[in-house]
């Protein structure tokens, strides 16, 4: 039995029957990480000692027949923007190199409370700004399916990690597609929950009215188990919702495919979309039709404004959020500077990466005197239109089916000098964040050069249970999610 | 479509507001990149929003209050543990105003 091919539920069953130990599981994943990560470079920090210690503790509990957590013995990795008390957290940026947080993010703490085992912190574009991990201040993560290609981003380290079975699941964040995009490009499953479903507390802020922490895993079933643990009201994040958290893993067969109404938005199948991506995503509609679902052609006309709305509003929020990196309370700083203003200028100039500076500049410009109405206010109004189109559409359909990325993974270096081209990679994901809806990305095939293709099931607010259920039934009858790169 | 070229002096003003010291090389690169990104934003002007209210958040939350109670928090040592410089249990910064 290859332990690194099991799901959460299977590992838990074997643990409870004492067929394997948490230490066996942890050692298997650490060995694989040691073997593969020098080339794939998914991790910024590997926490092997801590992982072994946690595993022994869990085995102790099992030996003594004590109650164990819902994720006991499950090796996980976490995007390096989640604060982990006592463990370096860099946000993929040189700005926070060497920063040891004094407290933990709520989501990480909830996972640890359920006895999950931390294998390490994964690479990301600096502060999650990007779609390829090439904007990381450290290195570029490689796509496990082909090392010449990017893994997608910004949660690219997390996606590569799960795709190459270096952890059972990983936590990422999705501000404009940063979970779904790399999940899709690496052939795994990822959930961007409704805004406010998972707490943002203790996660370095990118755009506070968009940021959504969420999981990347091999199956929808695993995603459901993880989301049951992470979701819910957090007094430390006032924007979390008090909407009750359903037992997602018990509802996976609840929403029957027969009679289900699936909306197919024409704007998501035109323009820059690659032919093979379009074909594979449309094949999924045939699958659902065969199962008795109704495919309904719909239109979301404001989709074309999505990228512009997103790349006005998000840099505005970024420029405000990045103001805290002044080199005083945390992070790297320039030494021997004589006055405070020079200290700010030199520190921020020296340690912030290209994309960080670029987005701060865009945001500062758009918010500066004389431009607020033309950019921020205008984009906030179009945000209303995008949101309302979704709300109207969900009166007619149960879910919206669309591609995640217009293309498969691209070659490392291909788009790095053209930020606008990089932004356009988010064309099918950003509107969901602009509206704050949940969306589940799933693998649905491969291109002729053997790179994964994914699709997404967009749900109405707080209807994660419904899209998870539809996605789970898809995975019961297909096997794309079991296909793994040969490593 | 009119090009929204940012002038070098405008650019310098923005960098100053953002507290960013940029190299000449960075300045040249970002100037042209920013201009093409701002041009792209013109797409928003094609939409009539004269009767639309802006959205600043999306899940209809309003006025989240909490009790103003003292709760355990970081002690001084912990709070200062990541500071670049501290003195007498305070964050220490370079001179703010020169005499």
Task: Kindly summarize this structure in a few lines.
The complex is a heterodimer of chains A (487) and B (99). Chain A is of the alpha/beta class and 487 residues long.
Q: Which sheet architecture does the biggest sheet of chain B show? A: 2 strands, antiparallel
CATH topology of the domain at 1-47 in chain B: Histone, subunit A
Number of strands of chain A: 11
Largest pleated sheet of chain A: 11 strands, mixed
Report the end-to-end length of chain B measured between terminal Cα atoms. Answer: 51 Å
Query: In terms of structural class, how would the helical and strand content of chain B be classed?
Result: mainly alpha
Description:
The complex is a heterodimer of chains A (487) and B (99). In chain A, helix 4 (106-113) links the parallel strand 2 (75-79) and strand 3. Helices cover 38% and strands 12% of the residues of chain A. Chain A is of the alpha/beta class and 487 residues long. Chain A contains 15 helices and 11 strands. With 99 residues, chain B is mainly alpha-helical. Chain B has a domain at 1-47: Glu-tRNAGln amidotransferase C subunit, N-terminal domain (Histone, subunit A, Orthogonal Bundle). Chain B is 32% helix and 4% strand. Chain B is built from 3 helices and 2 strands. In chain B, strand 1 (86-87) and strand 2 form a beta hairpin. Chain B is flat, with a radius of gyration of 23 Å. The mean pLDDT of chain B is 91. The interface between A and B is large, with 72 and 51 residues.
